[in-house]
Amino acid sequence: MNTTQVQTGAAAGGVGRSIWVRRLWPWLVAVVIAMLLPLLVTSNHGLTMISHMGVMIIFALSYNMLLGNTGLLSFGHAVYFGLGGYMAMHMLRYIEATGFGMPLELLPVVGALGGLLFGLIFGAVSTRRAGVVFAMISLGIGEMVTASSLMFTGFFGGEAGLFGNREAPVSLFGIDYGPGRNVYYLVAVWALIAAVIMFLLRQTPLGWMANAVRDNPERAQFVGYSPQMVRFFQFVLAATFAGLAGGLFIVVDEIITDETVGMIQSGLVLLSAYIGGIGFFLGPVVGAVLVVFLESELSSITDAWLLYFGLLFVAVVMFAPQGLFGVAYQQVMSWRAGEWVRSFHARLYATSAMLVFVLALIAVIEKAYHVLRHWNPQEPMPLFFVTIDATSMVPWLVSFAVMAGALAVFFLHARPLLRRALDSGEGA
Amino acid sequence: MLETITFSLLNGLLYGMLLFMLSSGLTLIFGMMGVLNFAHASFYMLGAYFAYTMGLYTGFWVALFLAPIAVGLIGAAVERFGLRQVHQYGHVPELLFTFGLAYVVEELVRLFWGNTPMNYRVPEALDFPLFSLFGTNYPAFRVFVLVVAVSMFVGLYLLLKRTRAGLIIQASLSRPDMVSALGHNVPQVFMWVFAFGTGLAALGGVVGGIQLVTEPGMAFMMGPIVFVVVVVGGLGSIQGALIASILIGVLQTFALSVDWSLANLGMVFGYAVPPESFFATIWYMDSTRIAPMLPYLLLVLMLIFRPRGLMGKRES
Amino acid sequence: MSQETALALKGLTKNFGRAEIIRGVDLDIKANERHVIIGPNGAGKSTLFNLISGRLEATSGTIQLFGREIDGLPPHRVNRMGLSRSFQVTNLFQNMTVMQNLRCALLWSKGHKYAFWKLVNSQQEVTERAEELMERLNLTAKQHVPASLLTYAEQRALEIGATIASGAKVLLLDEPTAGMSRTEADDMVELIREITTDCTLVMVEHDLGVVFNLADRISVLVYGEVIASDTPEAVRANAAVQEAYLGTEVH
Question: What is the mean pLDDT of residues A284-312?
Fold first, then answer.
């Protein structure tokens, strides 16, 4: 997919400093945002959320080492996240019990080692094949580990899970990790380190050959590489970073349950990476931030949040397989190519029509939840700045009329107009 | 002992046949379209819910026929307006589409029917003990489930071996490209195969919802197991799916009903692992706790050692 | 040219089900020889290449590369032992640029293996060698163009470049001039001549002009058997060859 964009830096050649500036500025922006974020977000809830974002960014980036870079679709990546988390949790409890001198800052490394260990074991059996067979093995391993949490309650802590106290270990820098803000900074630093490493890994011989094996495993063999070994190494590295994310996760939450190794968690990371865009390094980052935000904020606003979540995912798969970051990237490219000048109105028009449709759809879904799931459907329902009676006919008719109208406008008028606007450019 | 074995066999067979009803449609869809339908168990769930709600008005027997047809039509719509759109991007996005669909269906079911299990009961006409074994009554409904499943297998078998439509389907199980070369309207064939496959899953749901449970989590409970069946049986093989279903059904039921551990085996040979040793956890583990893991262990082992499954003709 | 044997096939057979495609091929190819295999369509030339390069497994017989058995080894092992091949149908990393394709082809031979602790772009040796290759292939101007956007002739050239990049001692080229115009084919022949001055070339070719222009020795494969293997002059004079092959193809 986008192997080109990361390497174009070298293409310019020779102009030393400006290249470094061009390469480094996104990272500097990331550092600044990460450092300033706690000034905006001060509540405990918010700090936990942005900490979870950091964890999810590492996790989703590690997932994309498989799906985006190597073409391996995994339904069981949470295994390494969860088992890494458990390893770190056991270490944390050991530190608590014995006063062992490992600092908290290094606890995620224990998680990474856990991920590495299980990545080696399960990677050896699952990377012999790619494609659907790999996907099925990953699903099988995921379910197997989930089922084994019932068997090994000592390790998994049973239904209640395991607790730990992050204030028990010493700190390398004498930081008090009681306050959520300090924990956030720890997560942010680790997330940046992990992201830089994973970014660089894409440009190593292994990273290149992972792309090669994804696109054409046969040719890769005829330049001396074993596709199985390439997949195996990528898998182990991805598992290691997933374990690192798991180790950080327990520092944030101080509790871990067997849900972290389960199907839902594996699905969540797949969703994050894919919604963001698997063809771009930053795609999973965008996806992770969005998914955690929706999970944390949307769930408190509406009962329908999981439905929105599913619909968003399906919509991305159907209409924007390049992911949200991919869409944004395309728009920027098209802006630079000057396409916006002549198609601005058409774009605005089509986007508005779609937006109206989505808003009407949201209205329908919200009303449906109110009527079907609210303990008293007759109760007045606030919806987009107005209050309506969801059991009466009128709001439903309005919503459906708007939906139909918006769709008609989009397909019959706006889209053809947009196409014409773009085509006329090509002809010129 | 004989009693336990007999009942485990019977119940295992029953569970296996339920699995078969789900997996036959999945294997058909996979064999023809190459789509590993992650949402297959969601159509099973829809079958159960539809039959329950329809049954309130029409009674069980009408719902038994109507619910699968309704779900099949939904399946056709999903194929026509969803999958076909994604088809151009390749198999991975198709898989992801059905994965997302599974989420959506579950949430919609929660929306319309709520989170609690439905009171979906055995119809009165079948609510009696058919025979008695070792002093325990065997309910007629279970036998009915077996009958439905067996007639489904026979029907499918005849359809595939004896009809023209079956011939096309069979041909595309092994050579999908040839079918289009022979001038069949592949997109339309796909749509009806998808509808048919999801309808079969719904039929499984109509009876399975009564036999097991009808609640929003039922799809995610059955989904992975159905995958195991299809992969172990061999992707695209109906006979393989039947064998694998029964194998897994019996295996799991036995592990659940026989309280047994490796230590029992050890005792036969007069050997025991010291209780404090590293392997003691596994050695003294009850089979009931191992049971949920067995199908997946089987799946992983199968994929490692025989990726085309028991009866599969090709790998993927 | 009586040096050591680069590639030796002994009693090689390959069956697909009941069909015998390769029926006992014995062939000795000397080091630094330019050896061209000709034969009618369906004679098994591509199958023979697939057997030698490890893409297919032989039903029976042995293949030796500089005295070491290579039959039954996976393609990447064969490649590492110094045998490299091109494909009749262009087989590149389509999404990668010319430069990236060549670098990928160089990585293993330059000893980088599965390294994940160094960056590809800072491997001077790889970069220099890739630039050298591009120069030779006349692709320098297109170095940042993805393989899928190259013209057919350029893709073929890149295919050859990816094949020779590793510095293999034995090259198998499968119809490198197929589908090319006269001038493109001539350029390709010159390129091949240039790059095979110190290695062994085994080539499948249909264009007899190319064949007699380039070959030190020619083998004629008909229905899975080698009916002649000799110098171009001798093959031209061989009655059996004329009957079985040349007679039907040369007008």
Answer: 88
B-chain residues near A317 (CB < 8 A) = 86, 93, 96-97, 100
Residue A162 φ then ψ, to 5°: -120, 145
Lowest-confidence region among A189-193, A263-267, C239-243: C239-243
- Return the CATH number at C196: 3.40.50.300
Record: contact A133-B303, CB cut-off 8 A: yes
Lowest mean pLDDT: which of A339-353, B169-183, C38-52? B169-183
Last residue of a domain, one of C166, C201, C229: C166
Distance CA A423, CA A339 (A): 10
Residue C155 sits in the same domain as residue C174: no
Contact A133 B289 (CB under 8 A): no
Which of A208, A212, A222 is closest, CB to CB, to C84?
Answer: A222
Question: CA-CA distance, A70 to A56, in Å (whole number)?
Answer: 20
- State the average pLDDT for chain B: 82
Q: Is A302 on the interface with C (CB under 8 A)?
A: no
Q: What is the CA radius of gyration of chain A?
A: 24
A310, A32 in Cβ contact below 8 A?
no
* Chain C residues with a Cβ under 8 Å from any Cβ in chain A: 53-55, 74-76, 79-80, 84-85, 91-97, 100, 103-105, 107-109, 112-121, 144, 146, 162-163, 165-166
pLDDT of residue A16: 55
Q: Chain A window 110-149: which residues touch C at a Cβ cutoff of 8 Å?
A: none
Name the residue in chain B with its Cα closest to that of A308.
B104
Does any CB of chain A come closer than 8 Å to the CB of residue B227?
A: yes
Contacts of A352 by beta carbon, 8 Å cutoff, 6+ apart: none
The pLDDT-based confidence of A284 (bands split at 50, 70, 90) is very high
Domains of chain A, by residue range, sit at 3-322, 338-427
pLDDT at B118 > cutoff 90? no
As a whole number of angstroms, the distance between CA A101 and CA A90 comes to: 14
The answer to whether position B34 is within a domain reads yes
B18 or A15, which is more confident? B18
Those residues whose C-beta lies under 8 Å from the C-beta of residue C179, and which sit 6 or more positions away, are C152, C156
Shortest distance, CA A77 to any CA of chain B (angstroms) = 15
Q: Which amino acid does the sequence have at B65?
A: F
ipTM (interface pTM) = 0.90
Contacts of C163 in chain A (CB under 8 A): 222
Task: Please check the confidence at residue A253 and state whether its pLDDT lies above 90.
Answer: yes
| Contact in structure between B38 and B83 (CB atoms under 8 Å) | no
In the prediction, which pLDDT does A6 show?
40
Q: Nearest chain B residue to A375 by CA: give it.
A: B114
CA distances from A366 to A155, A301, A311, B115, C128 (A): 42, 11, 14, 17, 62
Average pLDDT score over residue span B293-305: 84
Q: Which helix (H) or strand (E) holds C35?
A: strand C34-38
pLDDT of residue A4: 39
Nearest CA in chain B to A271: B100
Instruction: Give the mean model confidence (pLDDT) for residues B159-175.
Output: 73
Q: Looking at the structure, tell me whether residues C176 and C53 fall in a common domain.
A: yes
Q: Taking residues C1-8, what's their average pLDDT?
A: 77
Domain containing residue B18: CATH number? 1.10.3470
Determine the pLDDT at residue A60: 97
DSSP C98-123: HHHHHHHHHHTTTT-TT--SS-GGG-
Look at C107 and A203 and tell me if their CB atoms are within 8 Å. Answer: no
CATH class of A3-322: mainly alpha
Q: Which helix (H) or strand (E) holds C202?
A: strand C200-204
pLDDT in tens, C75-92: 999 999 999 999 888 889
Interchain proximity C115–A205, CB inside 8 Å: yes
Distance, in angstroms, between C62 CA and closest chain A CA? 20
